[in-house]
Amino acid sequence: MSDQPSSYVSSAVQVESPDEPPAAQVKKNVAAIRLLREWMADESGYDEQVWPTVRKVLEENRLSYRARFDG
């Protein structure tokens, strides 16, 4: 995996704003993509360990009668 986005990735996530030049936005996009890839590669088991607690709290504090998650 390269630190430079492919043309597909940069065109898919690039958001041009009048306050920010495109190069600065691309740099932010590259950093975000790198972070997401790092999270996806994480095999520490932390998310599997914490998810039941997070799910329980979200279900207990929902505003709707419908469950947020299946099962």
Summarize the topology.
Elements: H1 7-13, H2 22-41, H3 46-60
Largest sheet, strands/sense/barrel: none
Number of contiguous helices:
3
Helix proportion range: 55-70%
* Low-pLDDT segments: none
Distance between the termini: 36 Å
The count of domains is 1
User: Quick one: overall form?
Assistant: flat
Q: In what range is the share of β-strand residues?
A: under 5%
Order of helices and strands: HHH
Rg measurement, Å: 18 Å
DSSP strand tally: 0
Mean pLDDT: 79
Structural class: mainly alpha
Question: What would you note in describing this structure?
Answer:
There is one protein chain. The chain has three helices and no strands. The protein has one domain (7-60). The model has no long low-confidence stretch (mean pLDDT 79). The chain is an all-alpha fold and 71 residues long. Helices cover 59% and strands 0% of the residues.
Key traits:
single chain, 71 residues, mainly alpha, 3 helices, flat
Question: Would you summarize the structure shown here?
Answer:
This protein has 71 residues and is mostly helical. It has helices at residues 7-13, 22-41, 46-60.
